[in-house]
Amino acid sequence: MKTVIITGANGNLGVATVKKFLDEGYSVVAVDGKDDHLDFAREKKNFEFQSVNLTNESEASQFVSGTIARHSRVDGACMLVGGFAMGNVTSTSGSDIQKQISLNFETAYFLTRPLIQHMKQNGYGRLVFIGARPALNPAQGKDLIAYGLSKSLLFKFADFINEENKGTNITASIVVPSTIDTALNRKSMPEVDPSNWVKPEQLADLLELILSDKGNPLRESVFKMYNNA
Q1: How many domains does the chain have?
Q2: N or C: which end of the chain has fewer CB within 10 A?
């Protein structure tokens, strides 16, 4: 049984991802600030929840050490935690940028750093980051400066990980969704057809594929799951 860490587990994408990995027989270590949307998983033997502040490097490192001690091995991590912010260059302060970097990049970096040392010892590991289209598309990113910049760091981070571990069985992948079909997005964009968006369950299916044996040949992967949004 593979063990996977899923951060941001209490959010819309996180809940769908936890369900998918549990259904496929993984041992799931779910991470978030709270777990009120994870009632369905609490009684499952292959599930545990940990409340961790991943913006704190020491706390993230201690969490990884504890998880390895309990499970002996961690095979992969889906790093879904993050935040969103509007604003162009004029309206975005340095503090705004730092907040987004903390949420979208450092939460992944602080988890990956101790995890990858463990994965090197085991000769295996799958790391998956959630990118964003504004990090790739300047037309969208110009009004989402802090968000786009923070997400763009994940692409380069994955490149560095893949280069450092080339020829091994340790990989970093990026999944780039367009608009995710959530109740909040439907409420905030009532004029847009949600059938063109991406469902959390569709993203969860892709995340599981990357970590499954079927995903073993994948290298340096960037998956753009846009649907018709």
Answers
A1: 1
A2: N
